[in-house]
Amino acid sequence: MIIQTTAVSKKVETSAGPLTILHAITLAIKAGESVAIVGASGSGKSTLLSLLAGLDIATTGQVLIDNENLGDLDEEQRAKIRADKVGFIFQSFLLIPSLTALENVMLPAELAGRKDAEAQARELLGKVGLGERLTHYPNQLSGGEQQRVAIARAFIGQPKILFADEPTGNLDSTTGHTVEALLFEMNKAQGTTLVMVTHDTTLAQKCDRVLEMQAGELKEQSVDVA
Amino acid sequence: MWHKISWRLLQHELRRGELTIMAAAIALSVCAVLSLSLFSERLQAGLLERSAEFLAADRVLRSRDEVNTEWLQQASDEGLRWARRTSFNSMAFAASDMALVDIKAVSSEYPLRGQLEVGSQAFAEGAPTDELPQSGEAWVASQLFQRLELALGDTLEIGNSEFTVTQVLTHEPDSGLNVFTDSPNVLIGYDDLAATGLIQPGSRVNYHYLFAGDNADIERFESWLLPQLDDVTQRWQGITDGDTPLASSLQRAEQFMLLASLLGVVLAATAVAVAAQRYCQRNYDAVAIMKTLGGSRGLISRIFTLHLLLLTVFSIALGTLLGYLLQAGVIYFVAAYLEQSLPAAGSGPYVLAIGTGLLCALMFSLYPLLRLIKVPPLRVLQRDLAQSSLRAWLQWLIGGGTIYILMVVYSSSWLLSAALFAGGSMAVLVLLGISRLFIRASRTAGMQAGSSWRLAMAGMQRRAKQNSVQMISFATALMLFLLVLALRNELLADWQNQLPDDAPNYFVVNVADDQVAELNAMFEREQISATDLYPIVPGRLMAINDELVRDAVSKEERDASEFREGFGRELQLTWRADLPPNNNLTEGNWFSEDETGSVSVESQVAERLNLAVGDELRFSVGGDEFSVPVSSIREVDWNTMQPNFYMIFDPATLQTSSATYIASFYLAPERSDELYELFRNFPQVSLIDVDTIIGQLREVIEQVSLAITFVLVLVVLAGALVLVAQVQATLEEREKELVILRTLGAPGKLLSRAVTYEFVILGALAGLIAAVAMELSVFLLQTQVFAMQPSIHWRFWILGPVLGATIVALLGKAVCARLLAQNAAGLIRRLS
Ligand SMILES: Nc1ncnc2c1ncn2[C@@H]1O[C@H](COP(=O)(O)OP(=O)(O)O)[C@@H](O)[C@H]1O
Ligand SMILES: [Mg+2]
């Protein structure tokens, strides 16, 4: 199991009193598996993703990534785990506006202090079809192109796990399909574990497993078909 | 690795214009401080150089006896140049007549500063010369030609020697300040002095030793020499000491420059703070992404700290370059205008400017940077999340502390800084309250207005908190601008008033009692505007409250015990029934008709001698001693070209027929050749031409007004920068709002007008507040710092709001123009 949670819950303080966003969620994801998380807006999908990725910590329960308990680690150590094992793709792309496409892709490798960042980034941008756009800034690229840069960036660290939060949510359907195809293709090629939040049911169906969130509780929809 | 990321961010962001405001703010503060302090330092050095000509040297040692030659040797050893000037009164005999003259024997190095001017006709314009009288020659002042009916080539007998008169001495650099020399000067070579046989033991001779050289050398010599001086018979004199008109003008100018550059720096610092805040906010996402991608906190702090440092270094370098060029340009024109080159400045201004830039950049971006580094990675999923666990008071503490440090550095006074700072903080708080009130009131007003206005009011209301902060910076910037403008006009008018075009340019001295009426009649007949004739009686101050002063006892006694400090030399006393013009009583009352027997003392002397109203002073006048109480203390404006006195008695106490009289008058330069005819009937009076002093004073005023105009421009720039930075900081917010309104179908014209109105209201309100605050500050500065008459500036009450509305609306529109030009789709895309 590459990801494992036991009775994870998340409570936050709001001005109207404490609010429980996630209720005792237990799940396990195998290495190489692709999992879709679906559910209504506000049902807690992004919150769950943030806990799985160690961006936030659970109020109760445990989250294990590659057998390490995130609850035992401080923020720096969790960052180290993300640097080594995790890649991200977001709905709003989140490229750094003042860096070029190439530099955005190089960034994770550089933060990890790796020397071969540039060559790898060039190769990856070639793979996502943006070999000619290396020196363009994010605002010179279309939404689909920006998301392809984000995909290249996600794969540069050869992560074991890829988290995606509604990766096609901001794209029109044609572009969305191109980006999806690319995502699955690269995921297959690298043997990465994919955890993806999506509204798109066809996209969800392409995954090995679909988990459904309902008001902070988890309901498994379909089990491993393979 | 990480430094590459910093470098890249800097390069790209600079190129894409995201750091423009921040870089401009830092560069401007460096540029302003550097150019201003370079400019004022060089100007001052130039002025000092000019004023040194008043002394014909950098320092003068006046002594009643010859000084130890060791001292002169020491001066040479220190690398100083020195000269002798030995002077005394003597009779000079011409073919038909004789007169009392002032003999000045000067050594060959004289004058060390400035130049002598000579001519071939009495009272005519002379020309500068580097020569001195040869052995057996004498150069003679115009008055003596008048008195003895001399011509060039005549022989003048002085003591045992005969001299040939070879030049009319029209100007001596060091003659200007002592208007009480009543006999015409005769200049001879020092080597001819001994042969005259006039210097005998007991004769009253002034031995002056002139020194000039590098500042450092002079200061070294000074600190070696001063402890050895006898403070009764010897006096050490520099340029800015004493009651020279230059000294007080310079001091005021310096105070103004200091204040203005401090205000400029505070403005620029505000711009840096606003820009840094905005810059960091824009980078929240970048930090969240880097953290999500596994960047450790240490790494990210290093990246952004280096980024900021690089930006700072870049901006400071830019500012230094601009400041240097600006100052060089201004100096070039000033020097051409003044026909004088200005000496180069030291490294002080550079240290000050770069230090200021570093301090501003680092301190004001520290708090935003700390917040930036604390941004949690979770922000990538929860878009509105921004860490706000850092206390806001920390920001105020860092910002306030930095401004206070700057104030102390600039004013080098803890106390003044504390007062300014407290006043400023109070003003900000009051402004904050007032602007909140205004904004609230404007909503009610807006309800009755058209739709653009209503939208504008609503916008203001929505951003009430943001707007009141914004309004403070607008108001502060406008206020500082108005302040500098008002002060500039006031100061210049004040100076010009003291030196009107018809300021007296001649002093007439040595007028006998029985000629006063005749001279006054002549002034009236010839339509010459003259001051009153003031009697002069020489006298000495002997004791204060029956304690003998030092100069009243012999040297042996003095060394034996402590004595109260005295005046140190003979005084010129006068009597007068009413207070002279340009004198102000600060303590006590002026003489009344029925009570007699008291003296009015000039305030600086009173301070130096520690005198108060009621103290009993004993004077010795012509062998008689008498005591009178101090009845008042007077402030005297030394900038005026009128006879001024330290001690004024009531007429009953001092009146005597043995006094001589002095007055000053204005004679237009084109009438100067009438002088001979005018004073033909007054052969024993002396005339002293003070045109040169007036010329130099005017020059100071011109230089200072140039400098002040320059300061004004810098303050305007700094103010504009604050405005732009502020408007930019709210741009994102406005963007969102515009998208919504546009999407809802609001026509572009309406939105554009609403934005304009909002800025117009903000600007006008800020302008009004600024005018009020300015009035208050000017009042305080005029009364507390510059010692001027306070005044009200009604024009500024209109100028403020109009200027505020115009400037803020124009700048605001300019910054928002790109936003307004976009259609809804474009706007939405920018936001996503
Ligand atoms: N820090 C928080 N404070 C208050 N409410 C929160 C916080 N984080 C999330 N929520 C709420 O929890 C719910 C789930 O949020 P989220 O996980 O973003 O939903 P989803 O991604 O499924 O749309 C939402 O109603 C959201 O408003
Ligand atoms: Mg979500």
TrEMBL record, chain A:
Is-annotated flag, keyword rRNA-binding? no
Q: Which UniProt keywords apply?
A: ATP-binding, Nucleotide-binding, Transport
Top-level taxon:
Bacteria
Which residue ranges does the record assign to the ABC transporter domain? 3-225
Q: Name the species this protein comes from.
A: Aliidiomarina sedimenti
- Write down what this protein is called: ABC transporter ATP-binding protein
InterPro entries attached here? AAA+_ATPase, ABC_transporter-like_ATP-bd, ABC_transporter-like_CS, MacB-like_ATP-bd, P-loop_NTPase
Report the PROSITE patterns cross-referenced here.
Answer: ABC_TRANSPORTER_1, ABC_TRANSPORTER_2
Q: Which family does it belong to?
A: Belongs to the ABC transporter superfamily.
**Any coiled-coil ranges, and where?**
none
GO MF terms listed in the record are: ATP binding
TrEMBL record, chain B:
- Originating organism: Aliidiomarina sedimenti
> Does the keyword Nucleotide-binding feature in the UniProt annotation?
no
Which Pfam families has this protein been placed in?
FtsX, MacB_PCD
Q: Which residues cross the membrane?
A: 21-40, 256-276, 308-338, 350-370, 390-410, 416-439, 469-487, 704-725, 759-782, 794-821
Report membrane topology.
Multi-pass membrane protein
**Phylogenetic lineage:** Bacteria, Pseudomonadati, Pseudomonadota, Gammaproteobacteria, Alteromonadales
Q: Where is the MacB-like periplasmic core domain?
A: 21-222
**In which compartments does the protein localize?**
Cell membrane
Protein name per Swiss-Prot or TrEMBL: ABC transporter permease
Q: Which keywords has UniProt assigned to this entry? A: Cell membrane, Membrane, Transmembrane, Transmembrane helix
Question: Which InterPro entries does the UniProt entry name for this protein?
Answer: ABC3_permease_C, MacB_PCD, Membrane_comp_ABC_pdt
**Major subcellular location class:** membrane
Q: The ABC3 transporter permease C-terminal domain covers which part of the protein?
A: 259-377, 710-815
